[in-house]
Fold this protein.
Amino acid sequence: MEAGILTQAQTESLYQVLDQATLVLAEELETTYLDALIEISEDLFAKQIQVEAGRPSERVQARLEQLFGGINVDTMDGETIRQAIQLALLRAMKTDKIQANHQLTPDTIGFLVAYLLESLTSKVSELTILDPVVGTGNLLATVLHRLNARPELDVKAVGVDVDDTMLAMAGVSFDLQHTDVALIEADATSTALPKADAVIADLPLMHDNRSETVDNELIYHSLQALNECGYGIYIVPSSLLDTAEAVKLIKELTTTAYLQGFLKLPTELFKDVRAQKALLIVQRHGGSAKQADQVLLGTFPSFKDVQAFQAFLGNINAWVSQLG
């Protein structure tokens, strides 16, 4: 069996176990799918079923042990496990009707963030990454798996989130993926964040009048955590630079960082054009950092147009090379 097919089969097998076990436990404990998924993931990692006050029952314990017996996460690579957990989290989002600002970063967008960060940091041997709104950790894990494929690179990561349930899911998810990430429960807009060489963030979708302000506060505050020359890649509304807050954002942002790029993501990724996102690329002042001769602007072509998409990546590579 080819490696890709084997990995896909392992992902599907692990997801089926996670899903079935979660449904069994959620019914037994009369809890949400997400809370049950967290406990099932912890059981899988510990190789032991948690029992409190006689729950789950011996019957349910036996069923869970039967399900766990069909897989061995120790033999799976981190990316395979991430994808299986992602499928279970998508099920949780739908089943529990979780609010939109906790939605997962789609893989297509995560892969682009990873590609950009890898390109921008290709000459370094050590890298500390901060995700100030880590959520369940899907974006950070996607980026880490790509960067960890570079044996010469020593990568450390920190994730921050104000939601303890999301953080609990992120923690056990990283454990299962054999990925070391320091997690901090805090509000990234008002807490002193740890220093980092790179910041990545999928800004939460808000539904109140403060949404633009909150987005901007997250950007400002996390920029303060960047080391000299460090890059920030933010997934933001594509209309960010068209809003009433844009002039203030650019003025405050450029006091400490260079606005190096703004790339709109393919419209095909979004059911509603008003939900279109973009990648905001900034670089902290200091050291060898300089304003790019040309700010990287544009819209990614459709993923379906392979030739145009590869040409667009070629333009990005050429732009990165002139940054020095």
Notes: The beta strands are 126-131, 154-161, 182-185, 196-202, 226-237, 257-264, 277-284, 296-299.
